[in-house]
Specification:
The chain is α/β, with parallel strands linked by helices and 371 residues long. 40% of the residues lie in helices and 15% in strands. Bound molecules: pyridoxal-5'-phosphate.
Length: 371
């Protein structure tokens, strides 16, 4: 689905020397690369605080820990997402309330959020799925009206621009109270191992987030709250500093692939190409088609036989996972989520795709669909 080898080849001299520098200085934890990356990401995102951490799941967990929620408090989240978004809610003894997504954007439906609010609701976790922003203007309005926190799961959409109703353009992940991201290697901004970060414009929250990510420590060996140990290491930060400079180029490359696919699949019967919202810039972490009246699983197998990778993101929605059995969430009525689960298929999309690869992939898909 991605070609990290070819991508590395293009930035190899810079990456190799940056990693060697870390080795020479042997400052592996909390080194200068981490603070350098933190500052550069802050200015790229236009956000006041960036707290690097060990991975995207930790970012979500630390964000939720910083809100001082009580056991049983409800957190509204889409079911159509990667499991990490929803898992951390349950891990902290909170109650995930799974709601429906919009059939076009694949992102959480604002009306469904409002309908799910109860006196126990404390937070909303929208996910900018596949690289396109959720309906943040509507979500922020709902949050304000009901006094709820908003934690954006920005793991798939780093670098995406969002148009606020007040006319300003901001980066996704900087709109809610807290934004979370992952630097997993295959993400749009990926390192060479695990990594993550938390963003906020709120000074008080930033202090808390920093403390929680570092054993609840306020000053050395003084621990004020229960926290965890979640750090980005210096080697990963060195890699990320180099790749952050390429992020906008990487996004353009992904969007070019999406344009090619759109042009090919747009006219095809029973194939819905990704919807592009006017509010945001799609950064195409995934290129996901909806197939109607076609054998989706058959296509998936056919492509595998042609050595074309394809993926079903995600084959089981969160509310139907065994993990959440005790919450009784499988009985939640989410017809759009179930409908999408049976029809979506994601094709290879990355920064290094060649025209002949795109020709081969599209030809292979068409061979099966036109059969
Ligand atoms: C990747 C991802 C995460 C988790 O990130 P990790 O770094 O793998 O822990 C969370 N949410 C979404 C939507 C993701 O795609």
């Amino acid at each position: 689905m991605v070609d990290l080898v070819s991508q590395y080849e293009k930035i190899k001299p810079a990456i190799d020397s940056a990693i060697l520098d870390v080795l020479k200085n042997a400052q592996f934890i909390n080194g200068p690369e981490v603070s350098g990356f933190q500052d550069e990401l802050k200015s790229y995102l236009g956000v006041k605080h960036v707290i690097p951490c060990a991975n995207g799941t930790d970012a979500l967990q630390i964000a939720m820990m910083a809100l001082d929620l009580k056991p049983g408090d409800e957190v509204i989240t889409p079911s159509f997402t990667y499991i990490a978004t929803t898992e951390v809610i349950a891990l902290l003894g909170l109650k995930p309330i799974f709601v429906e997504v919009n059939k076009d954007t694949f992102c959480v439906d604002a009306k469904a959020i409002e309908a799910a609010i109860t006196p126990k609701t404390k937070a909303i976790v929208p996910v900018h799925l596949y690289g396109q922003a959720a309906d943040m203007n509507a979500i922020m309005e709902i949050a304000k009206k009901h006094n709820l926190y908003v934690i954006e799961d920005n793991a798939q959409a780093i670098g995406s621009d969002y148009h606020l109703t007040n006319g300003s353009v901001v980066k996704t992940g900087t709109i809610g109270d807290i934004g979370c991201t992952s630097f997993f290697p295959s993400k749009n901004l990926g390192c060479y191992g695990d990594g993550g970060a938390i963003f906020t414009n709120n000074d008080d929250l930033s202090v808390k987030l920093k403390m929680i990510a570092n054993h609840g420590q306020s000053k050395r060996y003084y621990h004020d709250v229960v926290g965890c140990n979640s750090r980005l290491d210096n080697i990963q930060a060195a890699v990320l500093r180099i790749k952050l400079r390429q992020l906008d180029n990487y996004i353009d490359a992904r969007r070019n692939v999406a344009d090619y696919y759109d042009e090919f699949f747009g006219p095809m019967e029973g194939v819905q190409i990704p919807f592009r919202s006017h509010d945001s810039k799609h950064v195409f972490h995934q290129y996901t088609l909806i197939l109607e009246g076609h054998d989706r699983d058959g296509l998936n197998e056919y492509l595998a036989s042609k050595d074309v990778p394809s993926m079903i993101y995600y084959p089981v929605p969160a509310h139907r996972q065994k993990m959440f059995e005790s919450f009784g969430s499988a009985s939640t009525n989410l017809p759009t989520t179930d409908w999408l689960t049976e029809r979506v298929i994601s094709l290879p999309i990355h920064t290094e795709m060649q025209e002949e690869q795109l020709e081969y992939i599209t030809k292979s898909v068409a061979e099966f669909l036109n059969k």
